[in-house]
Amino acid sequence: MFGRLVAAITALVLIVGCSATPPPTPMRPPPVTAPIPSASSVASLARSATATEPGPASKRPTAPPSPIGPPNLTLSADEIGAHLDALMQIATANNGIRAAGTPGYDASADYVATQLTNMGYVVQRDPFQFTFFDEAAPVQLTVGSQHWSGADWLHAMLYSAGGEVTGVVQSVKLTPDGRQINTGGCDPDDWSDFVAGHVALIESGPCLRRDQVLNAQYAGAIGLISLYPNWTQGQTRRPTLLDPQGVTIPAVVAGGEPTQALLAAAAAGATVELDSQVTTRPATNDNLIAEWSGTTDQVVMLGAHLDSVLDGPGINDDGSGVATLLSLAHSVAANSQPFKTIRFGFWGGEEYGELGSAAYVHSLSPDEIGQISDYFNLDMVASPNAARFVYDDSTAPPGSDELTQLLLDALSAAGKPGLITDVGGASDHYNFELVGIPSAGVFSGLDRLTQSDVAVFGGHVDEPADACYHLSCDTRANINMDSALTLGGAVATVVHDIAY
After folding, report:
1. Structural domain contains residue 1
2. Each residue of 340-380: pLDDT tens digit?
3. Catalytic residue, candidates 79, 203, 291, 350
4. Is 350 part of the annotated catalytic residue set?
5. Pair 371, 238 in one domain
6. Angstrom distance (rounded) from CA 331 to CA 338
7. Which domain holds residue 144?
8. What's the pLDDT score for residue 478?
9. For the whole prediction, is pTM greater than 0.85?
10. Measured distance CA(279)–CA(305) in Å, rounded
């Protein structure tokens, strides 16, 4: 989650791996008659990246005969768990990650395509092009006699330019102890006193980091360092600048240990040395689209992102959303035919800035956009110290409030009330909002829970919802299954109510 981290939602969290055995195939209840492949055949398929071609509407699978009684969409903990095991094993077999542009992503896409095909779906592989980015070498920082190297305390922002620079470090809208003043470099006027040729020192937000970097460039900065004083050793993440175009200076983040040295250097007008070497290349990944035909052309769409960050397997972020949607897709396929078509999207490139979902939405015609009556996003639904948040974005189009209220009602009816949160452009729903599609979603949180949060959700006050966000410890052990069932169950309830 939070490929497009808006400054209002700065977060804490991390990721890791397990044994490199072939991904297991979850057990499925009797109503689905498609054969289930063996674990070995799934592992083989996860190496082959063969596409499942979409068929015309008339060839799409029809729902199986209606069971006795009303339709009922349910989730299975065993099934969700088996999917999470598979994604963990795929990451372990691919250097511990499933990031867009890597073999781990391709294997994840093959696994999901196989699962959906075995449920009876026709799966469309929807390729999109993007720029792959990574560090070519550990970031180096020297402040006086102190030196730091690598991911424990430093990372290049995604899509930063590379370079080796030496210059006086100058803080922009920071107090001497590092607290942000007013707009913190988000307004071009914040840079009126900045000296060209210096290295800029900022804190992130409240705007996009990209805006701060572009303002720094315009003011003549030769490099930029963004401080994250609360990030301890090994917790340094890689925020995204969304697009490499126009970014010409090295822009890095620094965690807690270098922060005080950098602030002292800025106060003294001292020189720092910064070396950030990066690599980029063109890449192509597939989104996966699958739907179960309804009796009308109206579409309820649900989505989750399939990619991890570059630093871990992403089992909560967002393997939890993927696994929950796969269980829900199975329940849809085992049920009576819906009134609205139910479409599932599994997105690539979210961690670089929601690139896969953006490509999908931009490919739709106005008529196709108009057919999507609702979009639901599942991104991080199984945080260990879980909250129960429902999206309530200030930028959401008309109709979104109604979806938010339906999700809140479903949680309350289950005896597990939720709270609203504005996640803004921090996940794939944002691209649907931009074209006017009513959108909502569920989120189990990542920041520290407050006393008022704990009064609603339970859990531990002043501890992160997910301490492994974007880190190597976001493994299979980082999953709260009750949270996935609760938040996923609320989505299933609402989809049932509006689609059947």
Report:
1. no
2. 999 999 999 999 999 999 999 999 999 999 999 999 999 99
3. 350
4. yes
5. no
6. 12
7. 137-276
8. 98
9. yes
10. 24
